[in-house]
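Supplementary Data S3. Sequence and structure tokens for construct A.
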Amino acid sequence: MLYNILMTISKVILKPLLRIKVDGLENLKENDKIIVCANHKSFLDPVLLAIVLPRKINFMAKKELFDKPLVSKFLRSLGAFPVDRFAFDMKSLRHSLKLIKEDKVLGVFPEGTRVKEANREKVKDGLAYLAIKGKADILPVEIISTYRPFKQTYIYINEIIKVDDYLSMKNKDAMKKMTDKVYERIYENHTVIESENKWK
């Protein structure tokens, strides 16, 4: 209930303020077992994903955000849960796989933190690990925005990365190839937008 209320309010405010244009909603099917991932430049990115996708997203969030009890309670009420970005966080991984098993949508920012520029080395393979273990497809979303009021924001819901295409490979090879594909798809349109100077 709280999630839906906040998303409705956010949609009313942010859609006109950031002039959000969405492309590719047909790539999200209602019954797909998926993990949503996106590039990450702003603290607004989880909100943008939540307001443009029709299904509730349960986001991984850095554990530091959960240090304060009231903030922690609020985030958990929205479906977010903590992850230690600097260690192998088994508790977080188990919770993520549980969500996938229950056909809930998991949200991950594979770069692990906000980044200013695209860099393949910053994309972690933990997302691919979860996809393989949970046998879930990956829905890559690309956010292109200046995050400035009344400047165009583009959100591309790009083609799903099907886990079945990688299950016959050795885990290490599969994780690398899936991570390569994730990087390619979450930055698929950046060069085109920037080169055509579409910021209006």
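Construct B, processed identically:
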Amino acid sequence: MTETVSFSIPSLIKRAVFLCLGLIIMAFGVAFSIKAALGTSPISSVPYVTGAISGLSVGTTTIIMNTLFVLIQILILRRQYQWVQLLQLPAAVLFGMAIDVAGWMIDGLTPTAYWQKWLVCLVGIFLVALGVSVEVTARLITTAGEGIVLAICQVAPVKFGNMKMTFDLTLVALSIILSFTFLGHLDGVREGTVAAAVLVGQLTKQLTKPMAAFEKTCLN
């Protein structure tokens, strides 16, 4: 699913720390997006809605969803599954716990005006993009959501970009269906969701070069 790369022990330790940092940054991005109340990013839309339905925290539902994603990867790839990707499970636990901690830390942030909500939303989008860039730069494991996309691409003749878009749209559609079915109204999917879908990828591309330079200088 991902390219196998050998690292020295010091480099591996630094990359593991960098991966954890990326997950924590992403978690703060999710927390800011939730606080903005303009809709979460596509990957967080299902945990947000299922959390609202069940009463569980978004962090808890994120852990559950990512665990299901890992199981789906195994079912898709079977013997081709790289068992090192089971490290996605502790990464998912860290990510979920960090979302709840981040939400607690910014609990006092209360944007009221529409422009204030957009400002908080954009901060969240930037943090998600930065966290993704940091996580990718670590080059250890993929996130569970990205792992599903890569697994499908490995067994089907479909491009990663097209599959990623389809996967994100599927999550958003599922969130909308769950929201109307169990809550009676639309929740967690708004204009901020569209902005995140468009901007996270673009910002991640812009961060590629500085992150590559950082990896060469500090992680190798």
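The first helix runs from residue 9 to 36. The chain has a mean pLDDT of 91.
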